[in-house]
Design brief:
The structure is a homodimer. Chain A is α+β, with helices and mostly antiparallel strands. Chain A has two domains: about 5-215 and about 330-410, Aminopeptidase (3-Layer(aba) Sandwich), CATH 3.40.630.10; about 215-330, Alpha-Beta Plaits, CATH 3.30.70. Chain A is built from eleven helices and 16 strands. Chain A is elongated. In chain A, about 55% of the residues are buried.
Chain lengths: ~425, ~425
C-alpha cells in the first residue's frame, strides 16, 4: 500500500468532513442538534454523498441516514459501518462525522474498483448520539437495534418542543420507528471509527487504536451538610466544615480511581454554600463519575468510594446523602471485530494498540443487535466537544484504509 | 449582688435591643446599612435613650451617636463604652447593638443611683462597622481615633451613591469629620461588649468571656489552572485536575490552621470551571482566610500555606497564581482593661475565660486612641450575621453588670 494511497484517502475523508461541517444552526460555530434544520441539511448531504458513491440511500423514520452498497449475495447478513452526525453545542467537526465519512469512503473505494463483497456494506449516519437536545439515550441507534423506548417521543427540549413534534417537522415518522428494528442475524458486524477523545494515542505516537471495551459508568450526586460559621470565630476543632470534608473525599476518589489502569473516577462539580471568603462552608454538592470496562470492578470501586465518603462524613459530623444518577453497564467489543481491526492496523505496519473507550458511542446500542467493534483515531490534545477538535488528514487516511481492510475481512472476502 | 438584679438589668437591655431592632430598611428583616433611613431612625432612638438616661447626646458629623454622662472632674479623661448600630443585610439584633445598649444601661444605673464617677462615662454608637455598604473600614470609629481616610468619602455603594452624598442626606457633615478626632489621653479606656459570634462560651457553659486580642487577618485569592478533559477518556496519570489539586490544598490548609490553638485558616470559596459531571476540572478559584492574634504566627502560617500550595501545584503540573487581598495586623487588648473585665467577671462568681476575637470590631480602630478591652457574651450556636442570632436576657444582665463593675474600676472609683 502506497503512502499516496493514505494521503488520497485522507484528503477525500477530510473534504467530506468539511461538507458536513458547513451545516450548523448557529453561525460561526458547529452546532447541529438532533432534528434541527442543520441536522436535516447535513442528513441530505450525507444521503447525496451515499448516492454518489453508488449506494441506495434514504433518511429513515427516526432521522438517521441509511445507505446500502449491495453485496454478491443480497440475502447475506451485512457489514454495517456507522456513527453520528449530530453534535454538541459549539462542537468540533470530527466527533461522529469521521465514522460516517469513513464508511462513505470505504464504499467509494469499493465502487471505484468495481468491487462487490460477498455481503452488502451498509453505512448509517445516526442522528441522536450526543443526547443533548432531548432526554434520550442513543435513540436513533436503539431504533435499529430494536430497543427504542416510545416514551422518548414525549421528551421535550429546553424550548418545550416534544421529540415527536420535532421529528414530524424534520420529516420523520414516529409511528414507523418500530419498523426500523433489524432482525438479529441480519447484521454480521457493526464497525465504528471515532476520534479517541483522549490523549493516549497522541502520547504514544500512534495514529490508530483498537477499542477493547466501552466503559460502564456510574454517576452520583453527593450532598454534604456541615455547619456554616464565621471563619474567624469558630475554633478549628469545633468546625464541621463541609468543604474540608469534600476535600478529603476528592483526594480519596482520585486515589481509588488511580489504583488500576482500567478505571477512572472524577469529581467534576464542587459547589460550596454559602461560598464566601469569611464563612466556613456549610454545604457542598459533589458529582462522581466512575468508569471501567469491567462492571464488577466499577461496582466495587463505587462501593469503596461510598464507604470511604460515609466514613469521612461520620468522623467529621457532616451529613451525607448519595443519589446514584446513572448506572450504565460496560460494552465489551466482539473479539472477532476487534481482531479484524487489529489485523488491519498491523497490515498498515502499525502496532495494534488496544485501548478502552471511556466515552459512550452508538456501538453501545448496536451491541444489542450485532457483534460490534471500534477503531480510534488520534486527536490533538485529546480534545473533543470543542471547536479545537483536530486530527490530521494522514490519520484520517490510515483510518479509512484500516476500515476497508476490516470490512473486507469481516465480509468474508 | 442579687439574681433579681441580673434579671432586671437583662430585661432592660433586651427592651432597648428591641427598640433598636424595629428600625430596618427592609420590612421583615433587620437590615440597617450605614447612613440609611433606618440607621438615621435608630440613631435618633439611641440619642433619645441617652438623653432619658441623663446624658448629653448628639449625632456627630460622621453619623455616630455620642453621649456623655459627666464625671466629678469634667477635665479628667473619660471612660468610653461603644459599639455599633449598623448591621449586615438580614442581620440579627445583637451584633453591635448589645454593646451600645450595655453602655446605655450602665449610665441608667449610675444615674438611678445618683452616682457620679471620678471621670465622665461616654457611650458611642458607631455607624459603619460592618463595612457592607461602602468600601470603608471602621470609618466612624477611625473618625474618633483620628485616622479617618478622606478618600472614603468618594467611595460608592452598589447604587453608585457616594458616601459623601449619603452622609449629607443623613444629616452629617463631611467637612467636620476631621474635627471629631479625640486627642490622645482624653479617653482613659475604650470598652466594648459584643456577642461572641463563635461557639466557645456556649460549649463551655459560660455567659461571659474576656477578649485577649483581636486576630490579625490575611486573605488571598488562589487561582489554579489545570487542564479540562473528558472524565471518561483521560487516564488518571495523564490528568492535570485542578480540583484534585485544590482538594490537597484544602486538606493541608485545615491541617496547618489546626496545629495551634491561636490560629484559624479557612477555604470558604471553591469555584470549579467548567464544573460538569463528565469534565475534569480545568480551573479552580479558592480563597484563603487565615487569622491569629500573633502577627508573626499568622505570617509564618500563611508563608507555609503558600509554600505547600506551590509544591502541590508544581508536582501536579497545575498553574497557581496567588493574590493577597487583605493584610490586617492583630490588635492586642490593653492588659489593664482586660484585667478590669476579668476582675468584674470574677466578682459575679464566674470564671474569667480569656478568648481570642477572630472577628474585627470598632475596638481595632479605637486602639489607636486609647487602651481597649472587650467583653464577649455567649450567643446561641455561635451564630451571627443571621436572623437566628440569639442571646438570653440573663446573659445580657451579666454583661451589663460586669460592664458597670469594669467602668467603675477603670474610672478609679
Amino acid at each position: 500500500m502506497a503512502v499516496n494511497d493514505i494521503a488520497a484517502l485522507g484528503a477525500r475523508a477530510m473534504a467530506h468532513v468539511e461538507a458536513i461541517a458547513r451545516h450548523t444552526d448557529v453561525a460561526g460555530q458547529i452546532t447541529r442538534l438532533y432534528l434541527s434544520p442543520a441536522h436535516r441539511r447535513a442528513a441530505e448531504t450525507v444521503r447525496a454523498l451515499m448516492e454518489q458513491a453508488g449506494m441506495a440511500a434514504f433518511i429513515d423514520a427516526a432521522g438517521s441516514v441509511q445507505g446500502r452498497y449491495e453485496g454478491a449475495d443480497p440475502s447475506a447478513p451485512s457489514v454495517m459501518i456507522g456513527s453520528h452526525i449530530d453534535s454538541v453545542v459549539d462542537a468540533g467537526r470530527y466527533d461522529g462525522v469521521l465514522g460516517v465519512v469513513a464508511g462513505l469512503v470505504v464504499v467509494e473505494e469499493l465502487a471505484r474498483a468495481g468491487r462487490r463483497l460477498p455481503c452488502a456494506v451498509e453505512v448509517v449516519a445516526f442522528g441522536d448520539e450526543e443526547n443533548v437536545r432531548f432526554p434520550t439515550n442513543l435513540s436513533t441507534a436503539y431504533a435499529l437495534s430494536g430497543a427504542y423506548d416510545p416514551r422518548w417521543l414525549e421528551g421535550t427540549d429546553r424550548d418545550g418542543v416534544r421529540l415527536a413534534d420535532a421529528l414530524a417537522d424534520f420529516g420523520g415518522d414516529a409511528a414507523a420507528i418500530s419498523k426500523l428494528a433489524r432482525s438479529r442475524g441480519s447484521v454480521r458486524a457493526y464497525l465504528e471509527a471515532h476520534i479517541e477523545q483522549g490523549p493516549v494515542l497522541e502520547a504514544e505516537g500512534l495514529p490508530l487504536g483498537v477499542v477493547s471495551a466501552i466503559a460502564g459508568i456510574t454517576r452520583a450526586r453527593v450532598a454534604l451538610r456541615g455547619e456554616a460559621g464565621h471563619a474567624g470565630t469558630v475554633p478549628m476543632p469545633m468546625r464541621r466544615d463541609a468543604l474540608a470534608a469534600a476535600a478529603e473525599m476528592i483526594a480519596l476518589v482520585e486515589r481509588i480511581g488511580s489504583r488500576r489502569e482500567d478505571t477512572v473516577a472524577t469529581i467534576g462539580v464542587c459547589e460550596v454554600s454559602p461560598g464566601a471568603v469569611n464563612v466556613i462552608a456549610g454545604g457542598v454538592n459533589l458529582t462522581l463519575d466512575a468508569r471501567s470496562p469491567d462492571d464488577a470492578v466499577r461496582r466495587a470501586m463505587v462501593a469503596e468510594i461510598r464507604t470511604v465518603m460515609d466514613a469521612i462524613a461520620a468522623r467529621r459530623g457532616v451529613g451525607l446523602t448519595w443519589q446514584t444518577t446513572m448506572e450504565s453497564p460496560a460494552t465489551p467489543m466482539a473479539p472477532e471485530v476487534a481482531d479484524a481491526f487489529a489485523a488491519s492496523v498491523e497490515d498498515l505496519g502499525l502496532p495494534a494498540r488496544r485501548l478502552l473507550s471511556g466515552a459512550g458511542h452508538d456501538a453501545v446500542a448496536m451491541a444489542r443487535l450485532a457483534p460490534v467493534g471500534m477503531l480510534f483515531v488520534r486527536c490533538k490534545g485529546g480534545i473533543s466537544h470543542n471547536p479545537a477538535e483536530s486530527i490530521t488528514a494522514e490519520d484520517a487516511g490510515y483510518c479509512v484504509r484500516a476500515m476497508i481492510e476490516a470490512v473486507t475481512r469481516l465480509a468474508g472476502a
